[in-house]
Design goal:
This protein has about 525 residues and is α/β, with parallel strands linked by helices. The chain has ten helices and 27 strands. Helix 4 packs across helix 5, helix 7 runs parallel beside helix 8 and helix 9 packs parallel to helix 10. The longest helix is centred in the middle third of the chain and has 28 residues. The termini are far apart. Bound molecules: alpha-L-arabinofuranose.
């Protein structure tokens, strides 16, 4: 059968009907925010990052070397440092990940020409010049104004090796290792905020049973210490034990039970948790570009599982630690998609779209709601790997939608959580049910109220009507992140497809009113 092409011409009245039908289709949500109700502190460390020695995360992404034509400070890219400073990155986890349990720190110190080339057998077996070692990492941390979270090698190292690494970094007294650090250009002791004792020890970190891991944890906790005399009291180094990477709770049960019975000789302050958004299971297979709306909804559904995962693990922690002394540290999270076609599959290269920014907002909101226990988190990973903030190609750099999302959330760092009373409603698409909206609120140190609203609906705008009490607000200002499509990305050629834009909102007689676009994240501040 031959189809005849035809053009649809609408009369003005039909057009009016169509527009009003769309307006009816627009949805609404009512929020009640009482700023006098105070929750937990949203720890700034929830906005931490992860920079593993993997693919082009460190080499090319951060380190180009002092002789590179790419503008750098002591070998570290200036453009990347400038962008990261704006995120106020609270801490950076390094050198892994799986890589940490095969890293021998001595190979990465001293004159560059004398450092041995080694193989990165965790990630593609590529040659590692070791040019980016401990002093370069500390320089990077210093340049972006962050704190060091180092992962000790439990899998293929020894407690002695880890103890000497910590002494090299943190001893202020003139020990041989402190003198070696001074000879390498850094006489003052470094500050190390956090130390992970192993990584995924139930898998790539040595496939240990929990009992074997506990025997190692006790030894590393006892003998690997921070020697910096300035790091006492509230700024002492926190030790983080390996926790779960699966919804079952037996690992957490065993580690927390041991913690409850610990004596003076060992301890830890945080339990790590790893959970990635992989909507099609393992190996990750969702495309990071050119995907359908169905992939978007599936990804959001998968990411929302984080809430249930945290709740289960927290219930076990509460049993052994009702005072919540031990923090839950989600030090690997984010979207893990299929490798970009044409890239080395071991380098975990993926594009970053509006979908990723939206799912990041959902995760950050979950962490904020669990802030009494979840006091630290690290998105995987910082540059050129997995759900990155930044992508680079030689001298070029582009900031991803997730970068802008993190920038919009800066005001929530160390702010006080304010519970919101609301019914998010639901959306049903492609056989998946999702909440229509998500939202969090917090009060910053100056007393200003911040409200974040995520509209998950890929098609419909959302009218937001918020009753604000407990604070007097005269005006509202805000930014929103959205784009033409859920798979919109920023590229080197078109870097501004997904960037925050100013949104208008009105506040009058204690009511905040605004309309947010479909598939968007909005942050509003209420000015007294
Ligand atoms: O982030 C990539 C890898 O994922 C990490 O090295 C490992 O800890 C996890 O399995």
């Amino acid at each position: 059968m031959k189809l005849r092409s035809f053009r649809l011409v609408l009369s003005p009245s039909a057009l009016l009907l169509l527009i009003s039908a769309q307006l009816v289709a627009q949805q609404s949500v009512h929020l009640a925010v009482d700023a006098s109700k105070i929750g937990a502190k949203i720890d700034r460390n929830l906005f931490g990052q992860f920079a593993e020695n993997l693919g082009h995360g460190l080499y090319e992404g951060i380190w180009v070397g002092p002789d590179s034509p790419i503008p750098n400070t002591r070998g570290i890219r200036k453009d990347v440092v400038g962008a990261l400073r704006d995120l106020k990155v609270p801490n950076v986890r390094w050198p892994g990940g799986c890589f940490a349990d095969q890293y021998h720190w001595r190979k990465g110190i001293g004159p560059a020409a004398q450092r041995p080339a080694t193989l990165n057998s965790a990630w593609g077996g590529v040659v590692d010049s070791n040019a980016f070692g401990t002093d370069e990492f500390m320089d990077f941390i210093h340049q972006i104004g962050s704190e060091a979270y180092v992962s000790a090698n439990v899998g293929s190292g020894t407690p002695q090796e880890a103890a000497e690494w910590l002494e090299y970094m943190t001893a202020a007294a003139p020990t041989a290792l402190a003198k070696e650090r001074a000879a390498n250009g850094h006489p003052e002791a470094y500050k190390v905020g956090f130390m992970g004792i192993g990584n995924e020890s139930w898998s790539c970190g040595g496939d240990m049973t929990v009992d074997y891991y506990l025997s190692q944890l006790k030894i590393y906790s006892r003998f690997v210490s921070n020697d910096n005399p300035a790091q006492t009291g509230s700024i002492q180094m926190l030790k983080i034990a390996v926790g779960p990477g699966f919804p079952e709770t037996d690992w957490t049960e065993a580690v927390m039970k041991a913690w409850q019975q610990h004596d003076w000789s060992w301890n830890f302050d945080g339990l790590s948790l790893h959970w990635y958004t992989t909507p099609n299971g393992w190996p990750p297979s969702t495309p990071s570009t050119g995907f359908e709306v169905a992939d978007y909804t599936k990804s959001l559904k998968s990411t929302l599982f984080m809430e249930e995962f945290l709740r289960k693990q927290e219930a076990v922690m509460d049993k052994y630690d009702p005072q919540k002394k031990v923090a839950l540290v989600v030090d690997e999270w984010g979207a893990w998609h299929a490798p970009l076609p044409g890239t080395n599959k071991d380098f975990l290269v993926q594009q970053n779209s509006l979908r990723d920014a939206i799912l990041a907002s959902l995760n950050l909101n979950i962490f904020a709601r669990h802030a009494d226990r979840v006091r630290m988190a690290n998105i995987a990973q910082m540059i050129n790997v997995l759900q990155a903030m930044i992508l680079t190609d030689k001298e070029k750099m582009v900031l991803t939608p997730t970068y802008y999302l993190f920038k919009m959330y800066v005001p929530f760092q160390d702010a006080t959580f304010i519970p919101i009373d609301f019914d998010p409603g639901t959306i049903h698409t492609n056989g998946i049910t999702l909440p229509r909206a998500d939202a969090i609120a917090a009060k910053d140190k100056t007393g200003k109220l911040w409200i974040e609203i995520t509209n998950l609906d890929p098609e419909k705008a959302l009218d937001v009507d918020a009753a604000i009490t407990g604070i007097s607000a005269k005006s509202a200002r805000g930014e929103t992140l959205t784009a033409a499509a859920v798979d919109s990305v920023n590229t080197f050629a078109a870097p501004s497809a997904v960037v925050p834009k100013v949104i208008s909102a009105t506040v009058k007689d204690g009511r905040l009113v605004l309309t947010v676009a479909p598939k968007s994240v909005t942050v509003i501040s209420l000015e007294p």
